[in-house]
Every structure is written in structure tokens, then in C-alpha cells.
Specification:
The chain is an alpha+beta fold. The protein has one domain. It has 2 helices and 3 strands. The chain has a 3-stranded antiparallel beta sheet. It is globular and about 30 Å long. The two termini are about 15 Å apart. The relative contact order is 0.30. Bound molecules: zinc ion.
Length: about 80
């Protein structure tokens, strides 16, 4: 069950993952030691295909990586 209220961070599409990681999703898996089974956007049950850059509501500009489905990652910042 996805429960985190987040917003897509703008301007991150061309960011490349740190060396040693094949993708941002891979990076997230290594850091959290979890498996990405569902899109982490609140209310979404999509299949996570990428690690999206997001900011959580109320936490300013602190950036997180979260497993997201393709459709959530392509929503405008304020529509997630
Ligand atoms: Zn989603």
C-alpha cells in the first residue's frame, strides 16, 4: 500500500545515478535493502519501473528517491 504524499521534483530527468548503480531504482534498493514491489506514491498501485526524485510535503526541498511507476513519474510536480 502506497502512503507517502510526495511531489515530483522538477529538473531531475537527466540526473544520472551514482557510479556503481545501474539506475536510481537500483540505488534505492541498495540503500533501503527493500524490494520495490509497488509505486510509493500515495494511492497508487502501479508497478515501480524507475526511481523518481521527489520531495515530501512539509519537508522543504529535501530530496528522496522513491520507486515510482512510469505514469506517476510523468505527472506534473503539483499533481502527484
Ligand atoms: Zn504510481
Amino acid at each position: 500500500m502506497a502512503f507517502i504524499e510526495v511531489k515530483n521534483k522538477k529538473g531531475t530527468a537527466d540526473k544520472t545515478p551514482p557510479s556503481g548503480y545501474s539506475s536510481w531504482l537500483d540505488f534505492w534498493k541498495e540503500k533501503t535493502e527493500r524490494k520495490a514491489t509497488i509505486c510509493e506514491v500515495r494511492g497508487c498501485k502501479g508497478k515501480p519501473t524507475i526511481g523518481g526524485h521527489v520531495i515530501k510535503s512539509g519537508e522543504g526541498n529535501k530530496e528522496y528517491i522513491l520507486p515510482m511507476c512510469y505514469s506517476c513519474n510523468n505527472k506534473p510536480e503539483d499533481k502527484v
